[in-house]
Amino acid sequence: MDRQKQIAAAQEKVLPELVLKNAKIVNVFTGEILSGDVAITDGYIVGVGRYRGQTERDVDGRYIVPGFVDAHLHIESSMVMPDVYAMEALRHGTTTIITDPHEIVNVSGAEALRDILHAAACSPLNYYVMLPSCVPATPFEHAGAVMTAADLLHFKENSHVLGLGEMMNAVGVINGDPVVLDKLAAFDDKIIDGHAPGLTGHALQAYVGSGILTDHESVTFEEVLEKLRCGMAVLVREGSASRNLEAIVKGLVDRKLYSSRLAFCTDDKHLADIRREGTVSSNIRQAIALGMPPIEAIRMATINAAQIYRLPHIGAVACGYRADIVVLDDLDTVKIHEVYKDGAAMSAMKMPEPMHYSEKLMNSVHIAPLSEETFVIPPQKEYDVIGLVPHQILTEKIHMTQEELNAGLQDGTVCKIAVIERHHATGCHACAYLKGYGLRKGAVGTTVAHDSHNIIVVGTNDADMRAAVEELVHIKGGYTIVSDGAVVDSLPLPLGGLMSALPAEEFIPRLDAIIRKAYAVGVKENIDPFITLSFTALPVLPAIRITDQGLFDAENFRFLT
Amino acid sequence: MDRQKQIAAAQEKVLPELVLKNAKIVNVFTGEILSGDVAITDGYIVGVGRYRGQTERDVDGRYIVPGFVDAHLHIESSMVMPDVYAMEALRHGTTTIITDPHEIVNVSGAEALRDILHAAACSPLNYYVMLPSCVPATPFEHAGAVMTAADLLHFKENSHVLGLGEMMNAVGVINGDPVVLDKLAAFDDKIIDGHAPGLTGHALQAYVGSGILTDHESVTFEEVLEKLRCGMAVLVREGSASRNLEAIVKGLVDRKLYSSRLAFCTDDKHLADIRREGTVSSNIRQAIALGMPPIEAIRMATINAAQIYRLPHIGAVACGYRADIVVLDDLDTVKIHEVYKDGAAMSAMKMPEPMHYSEKLMNSVHIAPLSEETFVIPPQKEYDVIGLVPHQILTEKIHMTQEELNAGLQDGTVCKIAVIERHHATGCHACAYLKGYGLRKGAVGTTVAHDSHNIIVVGTNDADMRAAVEELVHIKGGYTIVSDGAVVDSLPLPLGGLMSALPAEEFIPRLDAIIRKAYAVGVKENIDPFITLSFTALPVLPAIRITDQGLFDAENFRFLT
Predict the structure, then answer these.
(1) How far apart (Å, rounded) are the C-alpha atoms in residues B57 and A327?
(2) Which residues of chain A have pLDDT under 50?
(3) In chain A, what residues touch B34 (CB-CB under 8 Å)?
(4) Between A and B, how many CB-CB pairs are < 8 A?
(5) Closest CA–CA distance from residue A498 to any residue of chain B (Å)
(6) pLDDT tens profile B260-302
(7) In this predicted complex, what is the ipTM?
(8) A421 torsion bin: left (phi>0), alpha (psi -120 to 50), beta (else)
(9) How many Å apart are CA B209 and CA B212, to the nearest integer?
(10) C-beta atoms of A257 and B10 within 8 A
(11) How distant is the alpha carbon of residue A219 from its chain centre?
(12) How far apart are CA A269 and CA A266, in angstroms?
């Protein structure tokens, strides 16, 4: 901010560059709606009141609200690159994002962080980064990198870094694991995000008392209330998979509890969902539809998030704030008329030049040579089988005899699943049986595999599984479907094996197409062919998983093979 | 905070050191009152809920609220040293103070700041410092020091420093004075306190847009509302002289506007007033008496202030927060039962050892030799006379002919007033006439003289004025009354000529005594003998003042002599 320009324009000593005239301005500080103009110079709001400007634009009595803040998200879940994500988010009124590049850093470590921080600096958004606290996410798998407290400290002073990303290792915290506490101590003077699903009572007190500020994993109002009482800031999540908003907002509305410690986030949201319903704009709309006063919903989406994350010039339409502004047709449907970022109209904004990412990120799939043994499962008396649950990412542990297994393989209810380490070509791999995926022929593979992002491949036969893995190596990561030795379809995700280089308009139909083709080779309709698959390797989710180190009992935290 | 201890005690793996049992706990986050215990270890709250402890203290259903935060004050106004002030504030539930050592730094510059920051580090309070932005306060007087942006930057990283103190030079800000903007730029990433009495419209937009966050000078609700709308944090002041709370709180209550951007402060409060009515505790009580919901008043006095000043472990009774706790008998009269600072009961706390201040601060009165000329006012056709206004610190400009003057001198309505530079023995001095003080004999002098704290002496004759000045030099600063060449009474204020070294119990009667004696030598009852005097040299207050550089027209900003 140039103070001289700011001060001169505020007093019309030099006319403000742009004035949005005749607005109903939502004041997030007082909760009022005030008629007036918004004067902008040099990307900042210089005054709110009555103003003349070098350029004047009449908003015809529409509402002006601050640009929205998405308080917690992983861009990787959109499956497009940060610049594509940014333009998409901007269209929907989101001007500030607080991201945790947990996935890509699990692939490429410090190099990924450097690239992401460069992307943040180049972004049209206010793009903030929480440094991933859990790389690797667990000791039960091989990720692409290990990030210690010392490794993270190298990035702490970057102006885009707000603190430490979601501390998923709640067990480590409440047991006082020194490695975990080291990371917390290193970010004592910054924000530390939490991840505390269902944590309650004394354990929650310990978790919060260790210095963790936020949580975005609450699913009930009661959970939110207990966390708020502890002093946590609660981010109400509504993403593609985790839709927690309704239960929480209903409780807030019933209790008329509108705390400044509540904000909105999307966490994981796919691009097609964003295109259809927006990012935080969708949270706002749903909250209002559930009876939350519109100004409270807008506060949650703006100033509350900015204050929780200590962002001083963000989240309000007031002098000295960034001219990040959303013009709305009304406050009920929150229909967006125009978005201004740093005073520039989104409708006139061009797609930024694609960023250049480093070789390590764009070439992240490295496997040891496959062998005849890779997909072989030795005969056993009884088999532990991963059972998928329709519409859920939870799994169930199933026991099968050889006969049951054979029957399942025959009727297509059971197929093979393999996880192959793909970062450092260690050759680590594991293979097991999967029930409920429904593949009738061929193989389906992905390099998106939470949280270590090794290769997961599912197949009815070893040859197609092998061909699918080879295709994933060939396209440098992505999704693939192989049948009878031929590639049915592939969606390359070259950035870390997680994100596409395509623009949004091309990506969405390509993703739709490969999903349709997965159903065509037999994947059951109540299973998301790629997303469900990508969670089968996450050892922190119940009940049974598979990592590159073996079949894993996620309830007793021990390997089964 | 020791995380291992915190985490262990939160889960009773090691019993908390102290548990306050059976309390009604005010939760400032949710606005609830919850029954439970508060567990404390190592000076921090480790848990709220049901707890057993190594020591348990039953609070018998009393209310537990966070220790109070006084969001803006000048300790100098109490006229006692910081350690005496601290113990007095603690008794009244104030556990955190945000101070601006504006007065003492005007006397002794960087050396005063060093001493004050040392006092802050030794204090039982959470003692924060805003670095004085206006030293000297104006170019129309000689202060003891000049503090540039570069001088202030030396202290910026001290852990007790939160930012830049009240920017009184509003005119400099809105005119874009580069020296002023340099100071604002230097504290861009910290808090900048404002001082914007009556500032409104585009000028206020410019002032706030320059990066100034707070204001404590509002006297009407409308003024508060405009400042809140601009994004300012408003500190509602109730001090010894400026009593702004009633008008503002009435407006807040009428409009039900309870913003998280409102806090309480005392600004300037004398020790006797503190002893009688408390510090922030008095603001809370008055607000509740005016109809503010008790929990809102407590929020203003605790978490709101902590959040405005970005103090992460202060302002709430919750895990991870400092165990700064006030136990109240009830929420209506806010009667204090006990105060805990860092988990230690105030009632068992000992007065800290007096701190050693540097020679420069304890020996701050240095004048050039007085001469026959010092108190001579050359004859003029007409005289500009300073007219005191009963019960106010404003003055009025009075014109007097020689005849009127002589009559006034005769009947005791007019006397002489002189200001003598006392920091660097420059010999700068000025003398004029003062109407309305009411002295019948002798002289009254003080080294407390806002904001440059030169010597002010008022007298009916030159000999007693001279004797008073010499006495002030002799006692190294303070208050004095001289009559017929003899000292009637003196109150030494050796710390910078501003603060007494006496404990509270001795100081209050000594101050009472000298004030009584001032009335006995004729000071009018509607004038505060020393405080009113100490403002006659403040050139920013209308209408007419006197500095060491001459009689000053404070409405047209020019010297009259």
Answers:
(1) 56
(2) none
(3) 229
(4) 152
(5) 36
(6) 999 999 999 999 999 999 999 999 999 999 999 999 999 999 9
(7) 0.94
(8) beta
(9) 7
(10) no
(11) 17
(12) 6
